[in-house]
């Protein structure tokens, strides 16, 4: 079946499959620990929009993209990576916010993302060693030692962080959060997952320090807790602060589930408003293929077993992200209490108004993501992670230009788009988590 017909089928099914039953639990509001109310349970998880230029500034494209998503009905929109240091980027096209030079455009972005009662939260991050050499030849990390595995050649050897630099990065997280609030964003999410800097501190494999930031889990988590406390002080007690945290890194000897639960409990005691559960790193992505809908059906929703473990351990709201494709699965997860927010990302790059379709129109179909391919097997194998990410970035770019997503676009065109927009840096491996 031509993948473009998936979008047509979605439109047709709404009219034919509209429900008249009671309101879906996805439409129920949620009050966060800080007292802020979210209008529904749709949590648009972070995707790198790749829309910033070389100046790392937000653009009019960000404004149009987030206005479209806000009109689509989600309760919370989380931005893609916003880096706290413009010399330390994780991917091509990252926005960086370290001072107020782009405050006017940030205000436009925040205003667009909060239309129709939506929340728009800025995800704030530092890549650590996970910064491709094509955009950063001088990465920083808790300890020396490069990225392991087949992608190591794409990353420079990092410099071990001194105490002075650690304090500076903590200050940067707080400054970026303060600016986000000033600009009109209604929350922030601290990125502590996916092999970026905070996750590197948490990992006993990446963090080999012998000071108060290394060794025991309590010491390895100190950097995250220091960042969280500084951010909380910067934005106040009534402003949402979420944390994205790995359930586990997927690497033997790495940050694991028991450690993750321990960290979550400490974050809850510190006053976190939501924990966004995720997993994986560069060295061990959660998924390595681009199988599309067939793969989704085999796998189901990510991290459900871990979420069931956490259910009895925490009272803070959890967002479970990855693999939600239809209302039935979303409602089941909410009814079981394994999540309080439905994290969803890539389907919104294809169906930007999916929340409205499910909540307002009661659509009961399933979004089927296409298998992204160039049609050339060696090329697919060589660029599988970049291929899929670039394809979805192209779709977001189309929305940002006022165009419709186009599922007929092939993988080769996506790679060419990435090359034109970002040059050779676009072909370096990027953090590849499982489909969202």
From TrEMBL:
Keywords, alphabetical: Flavoprotein, Oxidoreductase
Every NADH:flavin oxidoreductase/NADH oxidase N-terminal domain range: 28-362
Superkingdom classification of source: Bacteria
GO function term, MF aspect, one: FMN binding
InterPro entries hit by this protein: Aldolase_TIM, NADH_flavin_oxidoreductase, OxRdtase_FMN_N
Entry's EC annotation: 1.6.99.1
UniProt enzyme class: oxidoreductase
Protein name as it appears in the record: NADH oxidase
Gene source species: Bifidobacterium stellenboschense
Source species taxonomy: Bacteria, Bacillati, Actinomycetota, Actinomycetes, Bifidobacteriales
